Amino acid sequence: MYHPLSLFVGLRYTRSRRRNHFISFISLISTLGIALGVVVLITVLSVMNGFHKEVRERILGMASHGDVQALDGRMTDWRQAMDQAREHPRVLGAAPYVEGQAMLSHRREVTGAIVRGVDPEFESQVVDVAEHMVSGSLADLQAGEFQIILGRELANALGVAVGDKVTVIVPQITVTVAGSMPRLKRFTVSGIFEVGMGEYDRGVAMVNIRDAAVLQQLDDAVTGVRLRLDDVWMARQVSFELAESLSGRYRVLNWTDYHRNFFAALKMEKRMMGLLLFFIVVIAAFNIVSTLVMMVVDKQSDIAILKTFGASPGQVMRIFIVQGATLGAIGTLVGVVAGLALALNIESVVAAVEQLFGIQFIDPSIYYIAKLPSDVQVGDVLMVGIGSFMLSLLMTLAPAWRAYRTQPAEALRYE
Fold first, then answer.
1. What residue ranges of the chain have pLDDT lower than 50?
2. Among 2, 233, 341, 411, which residue has the least CB neighbours within 10 Å?
């Protein structure tokens, strides 16, 4: 793109000592500003990615990747569905479940929750709830024993511990000689789990799938089949393929459907945060304009002499584009390297700052995490790096155009 003369002179102007030290200072500030903006952008985006990944893993600790449900809530061919699901190359595991809303009561405390009936033999193939057990295990949920596992916040709300009894009341009635009675059953608390998300820790209880079927009067039917895949982003497609292979009509859901608004908010938050922080780079890039404008004024006589010796206006224009692009490239490169170093070691840096100043940025009792997560994604780094360099290149056009329009006679009039 550039003539060797433009490249040679532009690079020489970039590294040469200037008579006007203020121009050198502004050049340094603009380069450091771009580097700082890139560092902040990469670090913040990586930390936000880390938080999003942490939240996603916590959600997938209780929510399956894919879910095929019967429209009427009674899936009778669930064994066939599981067999066909296991034959799919992307399916790692499948498990039946029974789910319904219920009221849980203990003494004077009453609260609502989702009661999920699971099969301990298959459930661990679909979700990672076993890793979040505070006490007890899924194996304690034996059919006919009416054991129940509660989320920690739900257990605290009811004031129960392992071994206590809770009454589960479902929104169906049983007709007896004494009249219509609500359907209820006493369960023994056999375990407590803690995922780290209030939606599950406060609103979910688990029982054996056969006990849940008895409570819901489903006989041998289930609510649906849950799936675990090798790629969470293929959940919708694989679930549709499974539903189409079965006779009847089914509802297909995936893990994003349960938290659509939440993930949409996280995505919007990341976009807005990235856009706002990118203005740091924009402000730094404006310093390149100031640097080049002052450089053009300072080098008026040099420009005039170059034009007198036959340099075309385009060559002169490209000299200052090369200079501005070099400043932008140096700032971007330094920022990317420093940003990656900081993002990959943010946990150690935060720990050192906390120890130095005696403060705590993240309270585990509130955020359920003890460290600042970071997930560096190549796409974000490339976007920030390319965007910063292109912005720097764009900022060189106005000063370069001013050099393009320089008239030799006017520039040399007072020399």
1. 1-2
2. 233
